[in-house]
Design a protein that fits this description.
heterodimer; A: alpha/beta; Peroxisomal Thiolase, Chain A, domain 1; ten-stranded mixed β-sheet; two-stranded antiparallel ribbon; 12 helices; B: alpha/beta; 11 helices; 10 strands; 35% helix; globular
Amino acid sequence: MNRRAVITGMGVVSSLGRDLDAFWEGLIEGRSGIDRIDRFDPEGLRNESAGQVRDFHFQPEAFGLEEAPDLGTQFMLVAAREAIVRAAIVPSAERDPGFGGVYATNFGGSNAWETYVEGLLEGQVRQADFEEFAFVTAAEHACTAFGIGGPCALLSVACASGAAALGVALDMIRLGEARAVLVACCDALAPTPLSGLSTLRTITDEMIRPFSADRSGTIFGEGGAALVLEELEHARRRDAKIVCEVLGWAENNNAYHLTAPDQGGAGMTRVVREAIEDAGVDPAGIDYVNAHGTGTQPHDPAEVQAIKAVLGSRAREIPVSSIKAAVGHMMGAAGAAEAIATALAITEDVVPPTLNYREPDPECDLDHVPNVARHVEVRRAISISAGIGGNNACVVLGEVS
Amino acid sequence: MQSRSDDARIVVTGVGAIHGLGAGVEPLIDALQAGERPAEDLLAADYDPEDFRESSKTYMDPCSDLALAACYLAVRDADLGWEGARHPGFASERLGASLGTAWGTTESMLNMTARVQQRGLRFGSPMIFTHSFINSPAALISIEYELQGANMTHSLGDASSAAALKYAMTAIRTGRADLMLAGGAEALSKPVVAALGDAGFPGPIGEGSAILVLETAAQALERGAKPIAELIGAACLAPCATAAGERALLAAGTDCARVIDASEACGHAFGASVALSAACCAVLAADAEEPLAAVSRDGSGAVVFERWRG
C-alpha cells in the first residue's frame, strides 16, 4: 500500500468548451455555459436551460470507429484522448496489461436509449441502439481506442460516480494492479433523465445559485472528464509532467432514502472524514474545498454541516466553492470535472468562484468565493460529491511532497 | 494464501440466490450435478418479492426485487442475527454493498421513457425515475439493511458481478469495510428481451440474483460463524480481454481451478452470471480439493474460491 498515485494528464469536454483550457479559463473568468437547450425540445421542463456542449463534432475514425457511438461516449472519448495526449503516455502493447481503465456514467448511452425506446414503442427493435445504450459499451470503446488491457471497472453511483472512479483507480495503483489508469466519466443531456430530474423538482425554475440564500435548485449539464492516474515512481522514471497527487478517497451510502438527504449530512460527514483519514493528512492542512454545491435548498446546508464537522475551525478559514453554476451539474462526469478543477486550483493557486451568488445564507456561512475567482495558495484540497441513491464520495488531492 | 493472517483472509459466510429454478443455491447445484440444462429461457417468475423483504415497499423495479431477495437469503444463511436494519454487534458504517448488473433497471427506464415520449417532458414520474437509476438496487440494499459503509454498482456486461465481488474484496482487504453483501442481479425486462431476440442471442438465457456475505476470517471466527469458503482471488479486465482467469489465479496464488458455470443450470443471466456461479463455487468448495472459479462468458472477469481450511 506504499505506492503513491499522481495525475499526469487531464481532459474535459463541457459547456464551457471542448477542452481543458476552455474549461479552466471559463471557470476562472467567471463564465457560464448554461443556455437554452437546443438539441431537443425542452418544453415541459421546469427550466429549459442546461450546460449543453456546443459546436462539438466527433470524428469516429480518430478512435478507430466506423460510426459515432452514443453522445455521452463521444464526450468521454474526446476528454480521454486529451488526458492521454497531455500525459504523453503510450501503451506498451495493443492491449497493455499494466494500463487500467475506470469509467463512470449515471445514465449510460442515454440518447441511444431514447432512440431504442422510440423504435420499441413503434414495434421496431433496433438492437444496435440497445448496444450503444449498454453501459459496458463505453468501456469497450475506450479500452480499444487507447490500448487498455489491464484492470477495468465501470461504475455508476449517480452523481458521486466521477469522484468514486478516481478513488477506484487510486486503489488499483496502490495495490499494484496497474502502473497507470485512465479515469473517464461522462453523461449527456437526454429527455428522460431531465424529465425525471425536473419532476423531482431538483431543477430550479429560475437560476442555479449554490450556497446563496435565494437558491431554488440545480441546473444540469453534460460532458466528459478524464484523468490519467499514474504510479508516482513510474511517472518520475519517464519524466512525466506531474499535476498533483491523489492522496486519498472514500465512498459510502447514507442508507436512509433514495432521494432525501439524511439528518445533518451524516453520510457526507463520514465520507469526508474517511477520505482525509485515508489520505493521512491533518484536516487543518486542507486549503480548499471544491464542494458538490448543487444549489438545491436541502443539499447545500447539509454539505456545509459536513465540512464544518470534519474541518472544524479550518472550515471558516478556507474557500469552499462550487463550479456547478458555470458548467451545470455534469451528472456522472461531475466528480471527475470537479477533481480536475481542484487539481488546477492546486497547480495554479487560483480557486474557481461560485457563480450567481446573491444573498448570504446563515446556514451556508462559509467563504463560498462569490462570483469572482480568487488567488490563494492551495497545497491540499478536497472535492466532495453526492448523488441520488444516497451515494457519497470524496477525494483528497495535494502537491507532491 | 495460507501465510495470510485471518485479518487479510476473506471468507464467504453466507450465500443467497434467486433464479429460474427457484430460491437458494441448492437447486442450481442439483441441476449442475444432474447435468440438467434448461430447454428454454428461464424467468424467475415463480416467487413473491414480498416474501423476501424486511420492510414494506410502494414501488420496486424487478432488478431491485431480485437483488433484495438474494440479500434476504444470504443474510439469513450467514446467521448474522440481523433484524432488518438492526444489526447488533456490527457498526453500520463498516458494512457495505457491491452489486453488478449489465442491464440494471431497464423495466423502470422503459416505463419512464414511454411516459416522456408519449405524453411529454412534464409527465415523467419522479418515483419511477428514482427507481430507474442503475445504482438504485444497490442503494436499496444499503437502505434495507442500513449499510452505511461502501456502496458500489458495477456495470461491465457479463463481467459485472465479477467486478462487484472484486470491489468488495478490495474494500475489505484495504480496511474500508468489515463485511460486504456482494454479487449481482439481472432482470429480463421487456427491452432487454426484445434486443437479445433481435440480436439472435444464443440461449437459453435466464435472470436472477446471487449475493455472497463476505467478511474477514478474523471477524467471522470471532462471531462464531463457520466460513463456507475462502475467496482467494478476483480479477476484472478490459471487456474482451480474456485473461482474467489467469490474472485471478495469479492473485489467488494458485495455478489452476475448476470452473463452475451456473448458466448451464439456470440460463445465462448476464451481469448476475458470475455471482450465481460464485455462489455455487462457495457451496461446492466445502467438498472440493482444488480451487473453484466463476468466470464471465467473455473471459474478462473471474473470481476464485477455495475450501476453508481454517
